[in-house]
Structures are given as structure tokens and as C-alpha cells.
Amino acid sequence: MVARRGKPLGAQLSQLFAEVGSFYPQRENFHLTPQVKETFTGKLQQEPREFFGRKVNEVVRTDGLKLVFEDGSWVCYRVSGTEPVVRVYSEASSKEALEKLSAAAKKWIFE
């Protein structure tokens, strides 16, 4: 694409994000005690309609528990089957929104 369009990759990405909006992804691993893992695994069976004051638009269970919100941001929880860890993937449209979503995602695990 760089050769064909004659534009540097950074310029092409800037143009793309200007057209469709930007996104900020993140992956975090949280270690779980056996008790926290048991409690959290029970939470994953729920169908949350709200997540820390945010309306859940869609619940996807294809690969863990993914909560999609009205603004298109989302958080996905995947409990490891081989180690006491939950992997949390999240994505938001700004760094600030991602920080807030990440904090809420962690809080939901350990509360």
C-alpha cells in the first residue's frame, strides 16, 4: 500500500483513522487465587445488562465473555484453563476511555 499509494504508512493510518475513528486496544493478565477464580467464574455465567453505569448492548460468548457497549467499546474476559489467570482484552475510542474501562474491568474481577 505504501508503494502503490505513494504515501508513508503513518499518513495512511492517520487518514484511515480520520475516516473511521481511532481505537485503543489493551490486553491485561490478572492472577487469581482459587477463591477469586471460583467467584469470578460464577460471574461469567451472568448476562450483565449494565457494567459500572454503562449499558451493555451485546453479550458475546464466542471466546470468553465479551461485553459490547453503546459507544462500540468493549471488554472481553477469558479465564485460562492452564494457569490461575484471567486475560482481559479491552478496546475504546480514546486513551482516557480505555483507562476507565480497564479500571472497571479489573474491579469487576476482584469485587
Could you explain the architecture of this structure?
The structure is a single chain. This protein is an alpha+beta fold and 111 residues long. It has a single domain, classed as TATA-Binding Protein. 38% of the residues lie in helices and 32% in strands. The protein is built from four helices and six strands. The protein has helices spanning 2-5, 9-20, 34-43, 95-110; strands at residues 24-31, 50-51, 54-60, 65-69, 74-79, 85-92. Strands 1-6-5-4-3-2 form a six-stranded antiparallel beta sheet, covered by helices on one side. A hairpin with a 5-residue loop joins strand 5 and strand 6 (85-92).
List keywords for this structure.
six-stranded antiparallel sheet; 6 strands; TATA-Binding Protein; alpha+beta
Write the layout of secondary structure elements.
Elements lengths: L1 H4 L3 H12 L3 E8 L2 H10 L6 E2 L2 E7 L4 E5 L4 E6 L5 E8 L2 H16 L1
Antiparallel strand pairs: 1-6, 2-3, 3-4, 4-5, 5-6
